[in-house]
Write a structure and sequence with these properties.
- With 241 residues, the protein is α+β, with helices and mostly antiparallel strands.
- The protein has a single domain (3-240), classed as Class II aldolase/adducin N-terminal domain (L-fuculose-1-phosphate Aldolase).
- The chain contains eight helices and seven strands.
- The chain has a seven-stranded mixed β-sheet with strand order 3-2-1-4-7-6-5, with helices on both faces.
- Helix 3 (101-107) packs across helix 6 (172-194).
- 42% of the residues are buried.
Amino acid sequence: MNHAEARQDLAAAFRWTARENMHEGVANHFSLAVNEDGTEFLINPKKHFSRIKASDLWLLDANDPDSAKGEDAPDPTAWGLHGSLHRHVPHARCAMHVHSTYATVLASLKDSRLPAIDQSTAMFYNRQIVDEDFGGLALEEEGTRCARMFQDPSVRTMIMGNHGVLFIGDTVAECFMRMYYFERAARTYIIALSTGRELRELPHEVAELTASQQDRDRVAEADFLKGMREVLDADEPDYAA
């Protein structure tokens, strides 16, 4: 993928996140590595998700703190979390962090694990990690601590206890699809809990099979992003500018 296309994919993800009301205005960040070792990455400046354009994205160097300084620069938590990810986790080519409603409710429960109770929740079966040691804003030290929890390449979803949720992946399409379905899965789970009735969890064999059938399906991910961009091309074409 060329640099321009990478910028457009990431800008589309911001716009769609705003449409889904999973944003925090100008806070939270998505990043995408653009060099071979993953240390140079695109990230959003202080601009509302619904207004991000491809040309707005900053190019930072994870080994150069000065690259994150300047007018409308990404805030310190962007550097702390995403700089750490791209410095310490080479397989985290793309990273998306949000405080979306249902994922954050889940992260606030004593048991923040997302169990497999349907097809969407099963996507994350044995493929999630829960961070139970929230230590404040994701500045340098906290960001590094979180990054080091992603050393197992098979784990690409982190439920950040008392905080939110973090996803890593190879592409914007992979990361965004995982983020989108996690929020919907968390919604299903939280609503199911609210009934006060006993949950019907899938047996291990079925949950693992369902997860493996959906795990990093490149065709489905590409189709998902393509459909999203086609809508934006018609409704908000300036995202690609």
